[in-house]
Design brief:
- The protein is α/β, with parallel strands linked by helices.
- It folds into six domains: about 100 residues, Ribonuclease Inhibitor (Leucine-rich repeat, LRR (right-handed beta-alpha superhelix)); about 110 residues, Leucine-rich repeat, LRR (right-handed beta-alpha superhelix); about 150 residues, Leucine-rich repeat, LRR (right-handed beta-alpha superhelix) (Alpha-Beta Horseshoe), CATH 3.80.10; about 130 residues, Alpha-Beta Horseshoe (Leucine-rich repeat, LRR (right-handed beta-alpha superhelix)), CATH 3.80.10.10; about 100 residues, Phosphorylase Kinase, domain 1 (2-Layer Sandwich), CATH 3.30.200.20; about 220 residues, Transferase(Phosphotransferase) domain 1 (Transferase(Phosphotransferase), domain 1, Orthogonal Bundle), CATH 1.10.510.
- About 20% of the residues lie in helices and about 20% in strands.
- Strand 40 and strand 41 form a beta hairpin.
- This is non-specific serine/threonine protein kinase.
- It holds the Pfam family Pkinase.
Length: about 950
């Protein structure tokens, strides 16, 4: 009997062992296969789920699967770039403990079937997907870690979550949740981190949250919460981080916060409507980082601020604080940011600030400060930005500022500073980008040393008492974007070197001075310049060239003449004219010469000898020169190709480098009036952001038509973004390219008569010169070269125009290209510049094209993973102000790519918007954004 029992036991063990070795007998195999059907692998890596195959029943070895015995207890498919949806079959994993589908692109709702896992599931990671719908109400009491952040979830937070009493972490940041915060969350006694930032939650913060005694992180930033901060939150003794910023909270800051000894952040309470005083006792929290900016707080800054020796950032700007800045602030020696702008502080600036030698940002602007600028500021050698504008400061500019070699921005505007600007060692701060000293009483002359500020973008010395001549060294400031010297006592000639400031764009204001002499013709070369003011000086002579369009720029100069002012009187204008006999002789000779020239041109054209040119080339270019330089257009010299022909680089004997585009012959090409008209137009228009057409030549015998363009040595934007042959395009360069493109398109649409519709705007047609300036090329030619001979519409219809991915939707049914079609294509290029993606990228399809993808991601809350994906990874990390500008660029692009043409802005409107982004980029250092826990 005993032997029989042993045999039975051995047999049962054998059965169990066999079952363990064949997991395919489990229901989990079928569940995994059903789940796979709902998931789609990225085309770039279709192998990620290749192991999930019914031919291999040992599913415990499949990618991401963890087993305990025969059962699936863990599933981790995080970051595999999966699309598709979550199958409800996932609710059949009876023993699963950990489920992680995060960092994919899954869509659809969170299956309600997850409630079937309530007896086992402890960890659920679904963050950073594209999930929508509501949060399931039944997730089970065993749930410990619930991560749903960075999705599109909506609706209220289910009160039933209060039943998940083992919950330790709950993050639903950056969704679209609404409604009020359920008081039932107070039952989560084990909760350590609650992150509901950047949603649309409303109502008051429940006082019951004070019962979450284990809580150490509470993020409610970026919602629509109202009412006062519950005093019960001060009972959370373990709380280390409290972020209630960017809501509509009212009331004051409770004194009881000082009892929260673990509190490292009371950052951030900013961007609310809090009132009253800051309790003095709060400054006994020595670990505190404090930032209640953008409220209506008032009172004095207490001397207890000196207790915060570990404080790194103090952000009190845009409140109503008054009184003196306490000298004890000098004890905060770890400060890196001190931001007290837009308050009512008065008295002297404490010299003890010189002890805060870690400071990189010091902003005391827009207050009522008096006295002098402390010489102790010379010890702040890490300082990057110093803003003291709009106060009542007096005295000289301290020479100790010369020690601040890292300074990039100085703004002392609108004070009562006096003393000489020269000699002033500030002109040796080679990293300086912005120098604004306007609205003071500074005197002396501008020294030649100003030429040392080679990085300078903005120089504003308006409204001072500066005298002497404007030094020629001003021409060395090649990166200058804005120059304002008005309302001083400058004398002498305007230096011709001012024409070297080719980046000057925002303004050149020399008005209300005592300049004499002629306006230098070099000003005409400042093609970017948008605002010129030379009024109220003593200038004489002609107004040079095209700048005469700005009539108000010249008023108050009695001896200036020429368009748009009164005509200039020429010497000898009253003398007797030419005799009648002389006129007859000259007219006859002119007629004979004109006839002879016409015959000569026809003969030479038929023989294809000298190439037609419009003056852009240094010398006449001959057909033979081009053939020799390119070895008869050998592919060795080809630098590009497109639908209408190939482009070659030709280094001519005279040292000139040109681009030659070869186009196949059309029998009626030269007789086509549209071609003649467009070539003539493109050969005469001039804009710094359009590629110059230097000439053309045709040979019926060779079967060739050649178009001669200026050579762009840095290739196209397409090359830089997608070919990866060159270094990365930085953000500043991309922004400059976007603006340059818009200005070129605006010129075609508004400043050409008749207007020119490009019809093929794309990154491969945006070329870059040696300075990385954008030049739009190939405009109008696709339409011209393929136009039907019987097409009588001179600029709207053709058989072909544009490139796939860039073509406006209305063109598909109308075949009519308008200015708004160009705006659409330009919008696509703007998206490409920011995202680094091609409009034909394989991640896009008919349902989700580039426009829809950008629009969808932009709707996500700030800081969300989907939104961050919009910015080309090669650009990161960006400064906050740069990141803001990138998103603004995409917002403009969305407007440009509206479905209906009437909803799109004109190119001029788009250009104005881009210009506004560009103008604001230098002076803005952005508001501090406190990141919430990820």
């Amino acid at each position: 009997m005993q032997r029989l029992s042993l045999l039975v036991l051995f047999f049962l063990c054998f059965l169990v062992g066999s079952g363990s070795g064949q997991p395919g007998q489990s229901n989990d195999l079928q569940t995994l296969l059903e789940l796979k059907k709902s998931l789609v692998a990225n085309p770039k890596d279709e192998t990620v789920l290749r192991s999930w195959n019914s031919d291999d029943p040992n599913y415990c070895n499949w990618t991401g699967v963890t087993c305990g015995g025969r059962e699936v207890i863990g599933l981790n498919l995080s970051g595999l770039n999966l699309t598709g949806s979550i199958s409800p079959s996932i609710g059949r994993f009876d023993n699963i403990i950990d489920l992680d589908l995060s960092s994919n692109s899954l869509v659809g709702p969170i299956p309600a079937a997850l409630s079937n896992l309530s007896s086992s599931l402890e960890t659920l990671h679904l963050f950073s997907n594209l999930l929508s719908g509501e949060i399931p109400s039944q997730l089970g009491s065993l749930m410990q870690y619930l991560y749903l952040r960075h999705n599109y979830l909506e609706g209220p937070i289910p009160p039933e979550l209060g039943n998940c009493t083992n919950l330790v972490m709950f993050s639903a940041e950056a969704n679209r949740l609404n409604g009020s915060l359920p008081a039932e969350l107070s039952r989560l006694g084990n909760l350590e981190s609650l992150n509901l930032a950047n949603n649309s939650l409303s109502g008051e913060i429940p006082s019951q949250l004070g019962d979450l005694r284990s809580l150490n992180h509470l993020y409610l930033i970026g919602n629509k919460l109202q009412g006062s901060i519950p005093k019960t939150l001060t009972e959370l003794k373990n709380l280390r981080i409290l972020d209630l910023s960017k809501n509509s909270l009212t009331g004051g800051i409770h004194e009881e916060f000082w009892n929260m000894n673990q509190l490292e952040y009371l950052l951030n309470l900013s961007n609310n409507t809090l009132t009253g005083l800051i309790p003095d006792s709060l400054f006994h929290l020595v670990e505190l980082t404090f930032g209640p900016s953008h409220n209506a707080l008032e009172g004095k800054l207490p001397k207890e601020i000196g207790f915060l020796s570990k404080l790194e950032r103090l952000l009190l700007h845009d409140n109503r604080f008054s009184g003196q800045i306490p000298v004890e602030i000098g004890n905060c020696t770890n400060l890196t940011w001190l931001h007290l702008r837009e308050n009512e502080f008065s008295g002297n600036i404490p010299a003890t600030l010189g002890n805060c030698q870690q400071l990189t940002l010091l902003d005391l602007a827009d207050n009522h400060l008096t006295g002098s600028i402390p010489s102790s500021f010379g010890f702040l050698t890490a300082l990057d930005q110093l803003h003291l504008y709009n106060n009542s400061l007096q005295g000289n500019l301290p020479s100790s500022l010369m020690n601040l070699k890292k300074l990039t921005r100085i703004n002392f505007s609108n004070n009562t500073l006096n003393g000489s600007i020269s000699p002033f060692d500030i002109f040796n701060l080679s990293k300086l980008l912005v120098l604004s000293l306007d609205g003071n009483s500074l005197n002396g002359s501008i020294p030649q040393e100003i030429g040392n500020l080679e990085a300078l973008n903005v120089l504003n010395l308006d409204k001072n008492q500066i005298s002497g001549q404007l030094p020629s060294a001003i021409g060395k400031l090649s990166k200058l974007y804005e120059l304002r010297l008005s309302r001083n006592s400058l004398i002498g000639d305007i230096p011709v070197e001012i024409g070297q400031l080719q980046d000057l764009q925002s303004a050149l204001d020399l008005s209300y001075n005592n300049f004499t002499g002629h306006i230098p013709s070099t000003i005409w070369t400042l093609h970017k310049l948008e605002s010129l003011d030379l009024s109220h000086n003593h200038l004489v002579g002609d107004v040079p060239g095209p700048i005469g369009d700005m009539k108000n720029a010249f008023v108050g100069n009695a001896d200036l003449c020429g368009s748009p002012l009164s005509p200039c009187k020429r010497a000898g204008s009253k003398q007797q004219g030419l005799s009648a006999k002389t006129v007859v002789i000259i007219s006859a000779l002119s007629s004979v010469a004109a006839i002879a020239l016409t015959v000569l041109v026809v003969v030479l054209f038929c023989k294809q000898a000298p190439l037609f040119r419009n003056g852009a080339a240094k010398t006449d270019i001959k057909w033979e020169d081009i053939m020799e330089a390119t070895h008869r257009l050998d592919d060795e010299f080809m630098i590009g190709s497109g639908g209408s022909g190939k482009v070659y680089k030709a280094d001519l004997k005279n040292g000139e480098t040109i681009a030659v585009k070869k186009i196949l012959w059309k029998d009626d090409l030269m007789s086509n009036k549209s071609f003649n008209r467009e070539v003539k137009t493109l050969g005469t228009i001039r804009h710094r952001h359009l590629v110059k057409l230097m000439g053309y030549c045709t040979s019926k015998e060779e079967g060739l038509n050649l178009l001669i363009y200026e050579y762009m040595e840095n290739g196209s934007v397409w090359d830089w973004l997608h070919e990866k042959k060159k270094q990365v395009l930085g953000w500043e360069t991309r922004l400059k390219i976007a603006l340059g493109l818009a200005q070129g398109v605006e010129y075609l649409h508004f400043d050409c008569a008749p207007p020119i519709v490009h019809r093929d705007i794309k990154t491969s047609n945006v070329l870059l010169d040696s300075n990385m300036e954008a030049h739009l090329g190939d405009f109008g030619l696709a339409k011209i070269l393929t136009e039907e001979s019987n097409d009588t519409n001179t600029g709207s219809h053709s058989l072909f125009a544009g490139s796939y991915g860039y073509i406006a939707p209305e063109y598909a049914y109308s075949l009519k290209a308008t200015e708004k079609s160009d705006v659409y294509s330009m919008g696509i290029v703007l998206m490409e510049i920011v995202t680094g993606k091609k409009p034909t990228d394989e991640v896009f399809d008919e349902e989700t094209n580039m426009v829809r993808w950008v629009e969808t991601c932009l709707e996500m809350p700030p800081g969300s993973r989907a939104r961050e994906k919009l910015i080309d990874s090669e650009l990161k990390p960006l400064l906050p102000c740069e990141e803001a500008a990138a998103y603004q660029l995409l917002e403009i692009a969305i407007q440009c790519t509206k479905t209906y043409p009437r909803e799109r802005p004109s190119s001029r409107q788009a250009c104005d918007c881009l210009l506004n982004v560009f103008n604001n980029r230098a002076a803005s250092y952005g508001e501090m954004q406190t990141g919430s826990e990820k």
